[in-house]
């Protein structure tokens, strides 16, 4: 297990040592055949165009310099700092994207606090798109961090922490203390001349869904802030330590669970409507895993923190085993499930969850390439949701929930199934769409989630930043470049839509907002990471050798 020194991320007098000790294990990258290695030169020595056009991202120097100080060059506010510094020829739409991102800024008592979900003046129905969503703010935050503007992120982290302290109620029922809001809004009282915050923890949200992902994103962002700025003091404050502990208490409590995965209700994450994403959805499991690992780096080993550190270590051990073994699907595993016997009792059962082979959907047999694999959507008794979900799989790569072999397999799958998963606009939120009777039953006849639209097989540009991070982590930036090229052909012209519809993602989504902030920020983050791969250190976690590796050749040889 990655043991934090002192209490938190490895700290030393020189911040640059962060990069040596943490997360990006160079040797592994160096041994990959796809990667063009050149360790001798430091990142600063070589020209950036060198990196971006060579296709060789595994160059050691880039990853050596994960800590980028927030001083000097970062005063170039308004200009993407990396482009300015390295005389990169930015794509013409980068400037527009930055302007649009800044237009989405929300101020609270004079300080920037977040970004609204969408600045769509043409849209008649604002709903809650004028709010700051915690999950939507993540790509914005990363863009600002990468551009050397950490203050807004710090402000966001602190203010959301205050919101966490509120008493949260839906009707007469009180939510857990650690719950973080899905979104919040700045209210202006013109008469009194005061500004106040109003948060939504699910009590106003459509369908009254609680955002299980918000707390995880908060922890992940706190680490990103710390890694990016080298400012440990924020994470070390009693407030942040308590905030983390409260979030963790919600998901580490003991109960009736037989699995280490986290049991959730429908609509608890990015897919916040009924879409059959309940039980143990991959998105939440991957974020849970990542947040646990981030917290492990930041929690102090003091009286209050110690208990959590131990619990996290135990849970991570079990969670990684469970996910890597039972959620993982490749050609071999599919063939094994296809031949499963059912009704097996006792601990010798091979088909532990009693999955009936007839429940394997037809599309999957053709979809599964010989080389490649992915984490399926959900696993619970007699149920495997075989759909592909992009966010969970990308987070699995960046957090190293996926083993190095599994990460490579996921990227292989994306390349092999490019048309299905990327099509004309990156990237499908899930695949395939559900239709007809199944759509009626699973979505409750949701007219917004008709086949190949919105959450039901729609294409979401925001996911581009996660794809790019996964590409860089696995040493395959050319995949990201291809996807970004596609996005650049349409995004500005189409007014930065929230999502696209159709099997290939060719049409601007039926009810898609324009100037959707995370589409804009997601694009910028993808661009900045590709220009300067060292940025990945903010969000990437290195493979942890001590965690239990699954037996990749499963069938009857599965072991406990
Ligand atoms: C939609 C999305 C959700 C997002 C929100 C604001 O509800 O499903 O993931 O956070 O819009 O953009």
Automatic annotation (TrEMBL):
<dbReference type="InterPro" id="IPR012341">
    <property type="entry name" value="6hp_glycosidase-like_sf"/>
</dbReference>
<dbReference type="GO" id="GO:0004575">
    <property type="term" value="F:sucrose alpha-glucosidase activity"/>
</dbReference>
<comment type="function">
    <text>Invertase that cleaves sucrose into glucose and fructose.</text>
</comment>
<dbReference type="InterPro" id="IPR008928">
    <property type="entry name" value="6-hairpin_glycosidase_sf"/>
</dbReference>
<keyword id="KW-0326">Glycosidase</keyword>
<keyword id="KW-0119">Carbohydrate metabolism</keyword>
<keyword id="KW-0378">Hydrolase</keyword>
<dbReference type="GO" id="GO:0005987">
    <property type="term" value="P:sucrose catabolic process"/>
</dbReference>
<dbReference type="GO" id="GO:0033926">
    <property type="term" value="F:endo-alpha-N-acetylgalactosaminidase activity"/>
</dbReference>
<dbReference type="Pfam" id="PF12899">
    <property type="entry name" value="Glyco_hydro_100"/>
</dbReference>
<comment type="similarity">
    <text>Belongs to the glycosyl hydrolase 100 family.</text>
</comment>
<dbReference type="InterPro" id="IPR024746">
    <property type="entry name" value="Glyco_hydro_100"/>
</dbReference>
<protein>
    <recommendedName>
        <fullName>Alkaline/neutral invertase</fullName>
        <ecNumber>3.2.1.26</ecNumber>
    </recommendedName>
</protein>
